[in-house]
Please model this.
Amino acid sequence: MKQVIVIGGGAAGMMAAIQAAEKGNQVLLLEKNEKLGKKIYITGKGRCNITNACETEDLFKNVLRNSKFLYSAFYSFSNWQVMDFFHSHGLAIKTERGERVFPQSDHSSDVIRTLQRVLKQKGVQVRFSAPAAEILEQQGKITGVRLTDGEIIHAEAVIIATGGCSYASTGSAGDGYKFAEMLGHTVMKPQPSLVPFGVMESWVKDLQGLSLRNIKISIRKNKKLLYEEFGEMLFTHYGVSGPLILSASGVVNDYMEDMPLSLTIDLKPALSEEQLDKRVLRDFQENQNRQFKNAVQKLFPAKLIPVMIHQSGIDADKKVNEITKEERQRFVRLIKEFSLTLSEFRGFNEAIITRGGVNVKEINPSTMESKLVNGLYFAGEVLDVDALTGGFNLQIAWSTGFLAGDSILEKILSSENLKVSFYK
Model:
C-alpha cells in the first residue's frame, strides 16, 4: 500500500483520489475549503453539466488548446465511461440539447454527494481546511507535503488538482501554479476564458436580460474574422454573455490585449438579405398607414424594438408609407449586421475556466506525471488545456484525474519504496 496525497477536492481531485484508492493506494485528499466540490456546485447554473454525450473522438474538436495531449486521458476514461461511473453509483442522468449531460434531479449537489459516497467506499481519507503550503521533494522524487500550519505529511506521490483562477471564492486561487513553479515547471500565463464581454455602447443596458436565440454572431479584428457561429446569446447591463459569447471568448482569447473587437449579430440568419427585404416590405405594406415604431412588432422581441428603431436612423413616428426604399434597405442591413464594440474580457470572477496553466510539454500525457519530478502528477484545470462549454471542461477534469490516479501504482512499484506514513 502506497501513500498518495491529492491536493484539491474538486472534480479532478476527487476522481483522482477515487482511482488512486481503487488501485490499492492509501489516499489522503487535502481540501482547503470546509467542503468538497465548491466549483462543481455552481457549474451549469447549479445543475452541473457533467459531460457531453458526443462520440468520444468529437471531444477533441471542442478542446481549444493542446487537444492531442488529452488523447490517453480521454480514451482511458471517456465521456461514456464517466456516464457509466455516475450511473453505476446511483446517480440518474439525462441528456439535453447539444448532447449536454446533467443529473436527472437538476441538482449539482447530487453529483457531489455521489463522489463523496464513492470516496468513502474506497477508503479515501479527507481533510478539510487543510491548505498546502509546499510540496516536498528530494533528489527529484516527491517526499510529501507541508501544510500552512507547518505540519509535514509524508507521501510517495502527490497529485496537484487545485484548479485555475476562475471563481476564486471556490478556492481556485492559482495555488497549483505556485507549487508547479517551485518544482521547476513552466506555467503558461493564466487568463480568464469562457467569459462575458463588456461593450462600449451605453445603450446596451437597455437590453439587459434579453436573450436572443437562433442568431449568428461574427467577431472581427479590423477585417479579420476571428469567430463565427450560430446559437444563443444574452445581453447584460455591461455587455454580452450567453453560450455563443462564452465560447467565442475562448476562441478569441489571443486577442485579449488587442481590444476593441467588433461584434456583428445577424438577427435573421435563416434569411438572405434579399429574402429579408421582401419580408420587411410585406410587413410595411400590411402596416403602411401606421407609424414605423408600430410596424415592426413581429420582427423583434419587445425590448429590442426601441434600440433597433434608434439605430436605424428612421424617425419612430414616421408613417411606413413614407419610408424610402433606401431607408428600408438600410434597416434590413441593420437587422443582418447589428453591431457592437467589444471593449473588454470580463475578469476571473466571471470566467467559467482558466486558460493557461502548467505547460503540458513538461507532463507525460500517458500518465499525467511530471517529466521533471518523479511522483508528481497534475490533473484538471491547473493544466494548460481548456475547452468550449457543453460539459467538455468537466470531462477534461474527470479524464485527467482518473488517469493520474490510475497511473500511480504502476510507477511506484517500479521505483524505490519509501518507508513513510501520512503522519509525523
Q: What stands out?
A: The chain has two domains: 3-193+351-413, 196-346.
